[in-house]
C-alpha cells in the first residue's frame, strides 16, 4: 500500500479537474477500484481503513476499504469561469476544420483562458473582479504620481504573488496551443495576459502584448529585474509582514488592513534609486511601438487569426482583429460571451476554451490515428 503522501501526489491530476465550490472536502482512496475520489465532510466520520457498505455496480453491495488521505478546504480552479452551455459536436467540427485548414495561424489570447487556471478576469458576468468588488485596476498615471497608491499596490502584489501568479499552472488551453505549435500550425501566440502561462506550458513563439508580471522595471533608467528577486527584497525589508494564503480570499482578492498597507516598505531601483513598476501595461499606458510592429508583421505573414478567451474590449486587442480583417485573413473566435469583433469573424463559437480545444484536439488525434491505419 502506498503512503498517503504518495497517494495524494498520484491523485493530483484528477483533483485538478474537479469543478469544486469552496467547501470542506476529503480526498479518499478506493482500494477496490484503485481510484481516487473527493467526498464532502460527512466522510470525515469514517475511520482510517473503515469498512462500509455502498451500492456499486447496479444492485450489488460491496465492502470497500476507504483510506482518508487528506482533509482540506478546496476552491475550484473554475470558480472564476462564467457559466456556459456545452458546445455541440456540429459546432466543434467547424472550428476543428478551421484549425485543420490553416498551418500558419496567429492566435490571440485573453484573460478568459487563464480563468481556468484560477486567475480571475475583470469583466466576466457574475465572477469577474468588476462583478465581485468595487475595486478597479490602478491607472498608469496614478501609479506614477502617488507614492501611497504604489505602496498599496505593492503590498497587495506582495501578498498575492505566491498564490495568484508564481504557483499558478497552465491549463489544457495553454497545453493544446503548445501541441499545435509542435505540429507547425502556429506562427505565434499574441497574449494579452501577463501571467507567463504560455511560456510555462512550453510555447516558444509568444508575444506578450501587455508585458509580463514576472519582470519589474525602473521608470527612470529602464533597468529590469526578476519579480522573484523583488519578492526576496520585500521579505527582507518587511520582516513583520508575512504573505500567507489566509490573506487571500476565495474570490482571489487580498485582505490587508490599513495599518499593514501603511507600514509596508517599497524598495527603489538598486541601479538609480528610481520608481519600480511591474513590466506590464497599466490601464492608460501605451503598448510599446516595437511590440505593436511585431504583431502587425506576424498578422500580415499569417494565414489566419484564432481569437481565444477575450472580449477585445481594450483597443490594443481589438486592433489586432481589425488588422487581420483588413488583410483578408480568416478569423475564428472562441469565447463564452460576446466580443467586439464578432462581426469580423467567419466563425464565432460560445464555449469554455479548455473544454472546446480539448475535444477538438482529441478529434484531430483520432483522425490522425485512423489515417495512419
UniProtKB/TrEMBL annotation:
InterPro entries: DHS-like_NAD/FAD-binding_dom (IPR029035), NAD-dep_sirtuin_deacylases (IPR050134), Sirtuin (IPR003000), Sirtuin_cat_small_dom_sf (IPR026591), Ssirtuin_cat_dom (IPR026590). The keyword Transferase applies. Zn(2+) binds at residues 218, 221, 269, 272. Keywords: Metal-binding, NAD, Transferase, Zinc. The active site is at residue 210. Residues 82-370 form the Deacetylase sirtuin-type domain. Transmembrane segments: none annotated. The keyword Transferase applies. One of its GO terms (cellular component) is mitochondrial matrix. One of its GO terms (molecular function) is metal ion binding. NCBIfam families: PRK05333.1 (NF003738). This is Deacetylase sirtuin-type domain-containing protein. The lineage of its organism: Eukaryota, Metazoa, Ecdysozoa, Arthropoda, Hexapoda.
